[in-house]
Amino acid sequence: MFYFIALLVTTIGADNIQTSYKNYKVFRIPIDSEEQLSYLQYFNESGYQYWRYPTQGSHAADLMVAPDKIKPFEEYMKTTQISYTEYIKDVQSLIDKEMSSRGRRCLNMTDLPLDQYHDLGEIYRWLDNLPSRFPGKVELIVAGHSFEGRDIRGVKLSFRPNNSAVVMEGGIHAREWIGPATIITLVEWFLNSNQAATRKVADSYDWYMFPVINPDGYEYTHTNDRLWRKTRSTSGTTNCVGADLNRNWDIHWDYEGDYIFYHPRDPCNDVYRGSEPFSEVEARTFADYLKSVKDKIYFYISLHSYGQYLFFPYTSRREHQRNYNRSYTVGSKAIEAVQRSSENSTHYRLGTSTDVLNLTLGGTSGDWVQDALQVPYSFTFELRPSDAWAQQMTGLIPGFILPANQIGINSEEVLIALTAMLEEASKWNETDISKNE
Ligand SMILES: [Zn+2]
């Protein structure tokens, strides 16, 4: 009954059938009360899709509404006296703008323009060329595969022997393009930069960089549906395709939470957890890869969008983990550094998702690496854009369809955050970490 899949209009594109979001709007709805929350459950039906679910008191909900549902939406909001603002007038026009801002594709390009988004083929060709561009510094990695048979590919950058490792994972949610773009940018900076601060952080760790760990989904966002989130797996038991790759890890997997908007057991829901833990081959094979390098992993970083949050485990329970204080201290250095460095005082909120958003959910990669692999630090970024109400007035809140001109500043902020985190973490000695205080 909780079908979030919008009633979609499709048009024939040049090569594929592209889902059109023409005249779909996104409305922003601030939440003030429990009563409003329960009213907003009404939109868990066809023709409506939450880009961000409502949670009480912490952030506004973003709801995408199909053209034929706009009148019913407005009437319902009037009846229930819930206020809202239109924040995206026409989703398709944002998508069109994004597509037209992409430069001419060059099939044999070796270095990617960093101010654009790229499809999977371009990203993998770029990865393939890195070892010959930077001999001795780059090792190609295949860290698993997808339901449709694509490799999950990445690189290890190493500038010195005996470094501990930072693992970065992006693109677990297909439509969150800023994650892969940030990882690509950081890889290029780490390989090319002569700046002392960047050199220091790059040289001091081995960087295991995986731009797209949901390759089928990511490809699908380029060929068929820009707003696809899940994997592309099929099964004999449901007509709905895919599972949420960040609800599928074997950690509190079937945890439904106490959250009324959250329906991970529904195969048609955008947050479907899969049929069993690690039912998705991407999560399963990538987890196996992580196990094979687990003794080296010092930091695990997962990139998502959007809202500007820095989360750390647990997402799946209300209790704080044993090393909560250490993670909080390290994370707070990151968000302070980002705020200090930016002209606009870019603000990230820090904490567990349970504390910050009143949102508990199971099966995430960040919780799994923390618990199963006992990595010292696991952080999840929800990248630009912000959900700050003030910024809405500037019109700079395009949700998942973040303009490509934001890739640079976003990547700078992540680099600043990482640098501050790693520096703070280095003050905690090995004994403190193994004690897990
Ligand atoms: Zn995400």
Widest sheet, order of strands:
7-8-10-9-11-14-12-13
The count of strands amounts to 14
Coarse shape: globular
Tally of separate helices: 14
Largest sheet: 8 strands, mixed
C-alpha Rg, in Å?
21 Å
Q: Helical residue percent?
A: 25-40%
Proportion in β-strands: 15-25%
The residue-averaged pLDDT reads: 89
| Distinct small-molecule ligands in the complex | zinc ion
Distance between the termini: 45 Å
Q: Which structural class do you get from the secondary structure elements?
A: alpha/beta
Order of helices and strands: EEEHEEHEHHEEEHHEHHEEHEHHEHHH
| Low-pLDDT residue intervals, each spanning 5 or more residues | 1-14
What does this structure look like?
There is one protein chain. The protein is an alpha/beta fold. The protein has 14 helices and 14 strands. The strands form three sheets. It has an eight-stranded mixed beta sheet, sandwiched between helices. A four-stranded antiparallel beta sheet has the order 4-5-3-6, with no helix packed on it. Strands 1-2 form a two-stranded antiparallel ribbon. Strand 12 (309-311), helix 9 (324-341) and strand 13 (349-351) form a beta-alpha-beta unit. Helix 9 crosses helix 13. The model is unreliable at 1-14 (pLDDT under 50). Zinc ion is lined by residues 173, 176, 304.
